[in-house]
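Hey everyone, long-time lurker, first post.

I ran two proteins through the pipeline my lab uses and got sequence/structure pairs for each. Pasting them in order. The first:
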Amino acid sequence: MKSRMRLRVSLALAALALTAASVAEPLPEWSARYALQTRGVTVASALLQNRHETNGSTLTLRVEGGGVSGFLGELGRAELFSVDTGDGSRPLSFMVHANPPFTAATTLSYDWGAAQLIARHGDRLPETLALDDTLADPMAFLVRLLEARRAGIAAPTLLRVPYADGVKEYRIQALGEENLDTVLGQRQTEKYELARSGGGNKVRITVWLSPEDDWLPVLGVRSRKQVEKARVQLEALSHP
């Protein structure tokens, strides 16, 4: 009888530990600098920062021109605010803006209570979309992906992005582990591929996540018809 009781207690504790390990938690604060390259030439740099707020966190991306694109000045800025649900983060608002001579601007408002996403693209009239866990801006998807892998949860398999010309679907496939030489040294990474559904352009985005670097992507490659068009590489990572 005592043996059975101990076994039940052990199983209950194991289940509790497994449940706790599989609950996503908000990402820590960090500052990551990336180099953006095309055809082997660095054309811009990007600073990705995550900081904690009173009731959530803000993920900010700033892109600055370098080299030839430096003549265009600052290329853009994006910001995502997420609230802590106690089981990871839930996006509330997303904004992306490009300074002159670019004028594109997009804001997304997540209304989880009404299960609606309000999308505003430039001067167009607002568009209301049905909201579920598969519909997200790229930064919200990145947060969800990193939180999942930090908690040992499988990566999501579908992403729907509300672009100005319609919602585009991406299928996500886990491609296993891979040793990668990076600016920060050799890293054991997890490789994922995002392939756009439908259409004939064969756009693919491949990312390598590094557990050693807070699960951030140490490399990302965008390709079309199996030809690399651009890449981003992590150059520095710091914590406050």
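...and the second, right after it:
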Amino acid sequence: MSCLAWNCRGLGNPQAEDELENIIRAQDPLIVFLSETWSGRKQLEKLRCKIKYAGLFTVPSQGRGGGLALLWKSDVAVWVDSFSKYHIDVVVNGMTTEPWRFTGFYGEPNTSYREEAWSMLRMLGSKPHLPWCCMGDFNEILQTEEKRGGRTRPHVQTQAFREVLDFCGFIDLGFTGPKFTWHSRRHGYLIWERLDRGMANYDWIAKFPAATLRHLHCFSSDHRPIKVVFDPNSESQRWFRRPFRFEEMWLADSGCSDTVLRA
């Protein structure tokens, strides 16, 4: 069981939509959060039908940018508690006896308005506590080691991000895979940053103590998809396939040779 979050940078691009379908088929997440969909409900409903997910909730794009979507499988019941241009916050039932909370979050890309996003996250953090996991593209780093190339990030920006995460009681889930989740070339510099992350409160980590986060690969977006796996052991077993073995006794069957030739 897993949740996946990805800043797909627009699903109007056929390459991005094809890649998303391939990622979902390969990773088989229970819940999918998408940011910067640049799409309306109608297009996302077509996607939901293609990938055969049971539920869809969307926040429309604004002009030629933005847009959020949350998709989920029939294995769980999802109740949408709140949403904005920055987030979709839901309560999840069905996997375990106790409900838990999932928030897909998208940080404000314009630093002049970033406090709006952090105020929204604080509001979410002030709600009655359930086990809580939050994933997405936060458009910010926590420390200088999460950036390579370009200008140094002002301390006041990273400090503001750190303070809101502390207020929410979030613990960074860490990651496996490549160090950075976003890259771009600006002002002649190649820049790499860890903008996408997963975090959870203590109750969620106690509920899913083996959970790990993975940075995945993609080609159509400048952001990597990220995936939280609740139980890595069950995930590896899901992908185990018994190897094919040819049985000598099949040669005794008169139709064996014909079958091999047809193949």
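Reply from user beta_strand_b:
Welcome! Quick read of the second one: Helices lie at 14-27, 41-51, 114-125, 155-168, 202-207, 232-238, 256-262. Residues 14-27 form the longest helix (14 residues).
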